[in-house]
Each structure stands twice: as structure tokens, then as C-alpha cells.
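Running this now, will post back.
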Amino acid sequence: PVKFALALMHKDLGLIREFARANGASAPVIDAVGKAYQGAMDMGLGDLDQGVIREWFEREAGLND
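Update: finished.
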């Protein structure tokens, strides 16, 4: 069952990034994590539980070819 949708985490990461930039801070970790979540969104995984982010990492690492 979905406990916290990947799309919601993706949205929250965007809000954190906007807050950081508005306050003159860099957020390289948030930027990197955001890239992973955007990739998972592009894979159509947004409605699934955020735990499916592992599928993006597996694809990027070439583990599920």
C-alpha cells in the first residue's frame, strides 16, 4: 500500500529547494535527490510509494537491464 506517494516527496523536495534559494543557500544534496525523484517521476512512478525510488537507482546503475 502507498504510505507516501513519490510524487508528494518530489513536490516537497521542490519546496525545500525553493526555500533554500530564496534564503541564499545552496542545496546540493536536495538537488541530487531531486534529480533521482524527477527520474522516477519520468518513469511514471509518481503514484507509487516513495520506496520505489530504488527502481530509478537500479536503472541508473544498470542493475535491471
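The chain has one domain: 6-60. More later if anyone needs it.
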